[in-house]
Task: structure prediction
Amino acid sequence: MVNISEIPKNAGGLYQSAKIKIYGIIAATTITALLVGYFFSQNSPIYGAIALVFFLNCFILQTILIDDTQYLVSATIISGIAITAPFYNLFSTYLVVVTAILIIFMLSAVHSGRKALGNMLSINFFRIARLILASMISGIVVFLTAIMILNSGFSISEGKISRIIDVAVAPIARKYIPEFSSDMKVEDVLMNIVLRSAAGDKEFAAFPPNVQKQIMAKSVRGLQGRIEKSLGVGIDPALSVAENVNEFLQLKIGSLTSSAKVLWSIILIGFVLISVKGIEFIIYIPIALLAYLSYELLLSFGLFIIQRESKSRDVILLN
Result:
């Protein structure tokens, strides 16, 4: 198992040096967490995303380098509160619950990372980072989506809907409809779905082109009818995906009770979370690489050393 500086207090300067470095790691993680919350609270998603990358980088290093459970749990809780602090103007029971959920995800990330670390003979940095980021990305997505809902008062503009669809839905949808986007007309989406289902159907291919068109048109109308029945509202095939989603949301949100709004919040958070999970590996790669470079840089500067125990188990020690 990888341990960090189990140095006795009577070790004097060595103990104090290790303690200062632990506080330094915690401070860096807390400051970047504050920056994440600050930039997102100021509606600066680009700077917020940059700060988030550095925060996750620091969080991975903190989880790996700090073995003391008391320090690590306290640092994790402080980081969670730091992310939430800039949203003090939204203070409510809802915000408290969302913060608690974020902290639970963060503690789960710490547990997964430390558990994997303890079962390794040789440090596999990228495996540890993947386990940590799996929970962290989920927690951050849940938190930011919940904050977006809380900040908007359960209303959302068509522009934001378009961005959400293009970022969260389009990467998955393009596996089936290559040209899919939020601006794509619904009738084109429906036609693509029907064409995909008809591909390879020998009976359909045997019909003359004019009959095929009739069958396709009927299938599109049938698919549209099933979707409308499922949603409980009509859809306009001539409008774009974003326009139809916007009309649907405005209609539904206007008729929601308080308890129903909470339910729909959970559904929306779940939908966004599932969508992000589909592209998680794309997010993981740059963050894990940055964390690894930082890890190697700290090792080269002598912040810590790696020793091997008698049973060939790597141990991290703070200098």
